[in-house]
Amino acid sequence: MVRGHANMTMIRQFISKKMIPCVGAHRSLACLHRAVGGVRWKSSFRQPPLLSAAPVRALIDEPISIKGRFLPPQCPVTVCAQMQSDDGDLWEAFAHYNTDADGTVNLTRDHSVGGSYLGCEPMGLFWGLQPAPGSREGLRLRKRNVETPYVVLMSLLEGHVSPGERQRTELAAVTTERWYMAPGVQRTEIRQDGVVGTLFLPPGPGPFPAMLDLYGMGGGLIEYRAALLASRGYASLSLAYLGHKDLPGSRSSINVGDSYFKSAFQLLQEHRQICADRIGIIGLSFGVYLALRIATQDGVKPSCLICINGPTGSTIKLADGEGRTESNDIDEKFWMFDGQGNVSFRSVSLPENLPPENNVKIEHIACPLVYIVGEDDLSAASMENAILIEETLRAAGKSHLYTCLSYPGAGHLIEPPYTPNSRESLWRVKPTKLITRWGGHPAPHAAAQEDSWKKILDFMESNLRH
Hints:
- The chain has 466 residues and is α+β, with helices and mostly antiparallel strands.
- It contains 8 helices and 24 strands.
- It has helices spanning 4-17, 25-29, 124-127, 224-231, 258-270, 286-295, 382-395, 442-464, and strands at residues 33-35, 38-40, 50-54, 57-59, 65-69, 76-84, 90-98, 105-106, 114-115, 130-131, 150-158, 170-179, 186-192, 195-201, 208-214, 235-239, 274-284, 304-308, 336-337, 343-344, 369-374, 402-407, 424-428, 434-437.
- The longest helix has 23 residues, at 442-464.
């Protein structure tokens, strides 16, 4: 595990290199004193100001308590969070507070009066992170290396300051580590029977209940949700099916078919540390279509399905039994552009726009299904697909299998909690640069991520352990 003082030095050097002002950084390092969970600074006050975070190391879905103490009473302060992404970009958040009569600010109980968020938001400095001024266009925060943490430098600043202000007096600081992988979780790359993925196993001998984890059309191998599920006691296989060097054919097309996904499910069933009859599937976006499709295949009997903002059908065909495939270009006649030229794919997945031959036979679903809707989803027609699933299961006499969680103000990318939402981000650079719209407003989207994650874990507990 990376040591805290090394992390602080790394972040400070990065901030300096990027020429983003952090007044007092070099001057203050000379008078830096390490305490457990905090960093004390010399000052004119009787007791030097202290910023603490507890715990300083935690999983990404765990809240932490942030407090500033030994400050003048009733004075304005700013708490700032800064971190470097795995892509080398600086992200930051600011919140304005006023100390109480005892000279304390406690983010668990106190209200921010300005900055990246307003009100009492104990984890606002994490879900409120945004690219620093001057950053590259269209950034989205995604963890690429789950074996390292996000290292967040938190600073207590004098007065109410904002990004870009050059005059900052830093009173105290502390670093926190945010992990997707708990100690003891095993990560294994899978290249077996044509299946390309990463398997995460919880600590211990098992056998464990398991999840097959499917992301959307962005492609590649997205591991962070699977790593977090393993940290919560579930074996989890993150599966690649598009845009990965170890898959057959072009990276721009889906060159695998139903047998590929069935093989991935069976790989979990046959693993000696996994309960063969306690395996669920979770999908986001296009991963929802795949999850539903897998669940209705002969010989595949998942214990539960978790669907997040995705369609029941597709305009894109998977490879046939002989590996033949078609172009995976999303049908441009349904694209919708805003005034800045950014695209929304929402209309592509409206049920009436999906070819009937590519629709999943929802009536064949035989396990509990929870569908999560972001009501401000600009990338998929989530509400319309949720209604279609509900109506189809009701007609089949299976209403008891279906649960819908709907969140006003939440966008497409509902992910584990306390992570920032990108309302829009870069989708592609070739043949032309394109930014896609995901939707979601910061505070309600953050609330949706926190609530839905708790309910996802409860749903898994009920259907995979009992």
